Amino acid sequence: GVYLRESGGGSVQAGRSAKLSCAASDAFIRYYIAWFRDVPGKEREGVACVDGDGGVSYAESVKGRFTISLGNAENTANLQMDNLKPEDSGMYYCAAEPSRRFAGKNSTIRHEVGTYSNWGQGIQVTVSS
Fold this sequence. Notes:
Shape: globular
Helix content: under 10%
Order of helices and strands: EEEEEEEEEEE
Number of helices: 0
Number of strands: 11
Largest sheet: 7 strands, mixed
Mean pLDDT: 94
């Protein structure tokens, strides 16, 4: 497996921006990377995913506001969160899975919890109104 560590997050006012970063113990070029979040009262949600070629996908709830990207270092990935809302508050997790897992599969698995076997510890994001 691959060890993942999130950084960034914290408290921010609604309408402002925040950036999360995920650092891995292996190069991401062979992995799909996703950000999930636990929001009170809801199931864990896959908000964004990027593959080793830079292909991205987003949940409807964050589309147009969040941007996932691979970092300059081949073992990092970032989640830029703009125009944050109080309902974006929660614990955010970085997840990674080898690219071969996705071959020939429906793209919806990119945002499914059960797809990923490697998870970070999570980091809190709190958006105040």
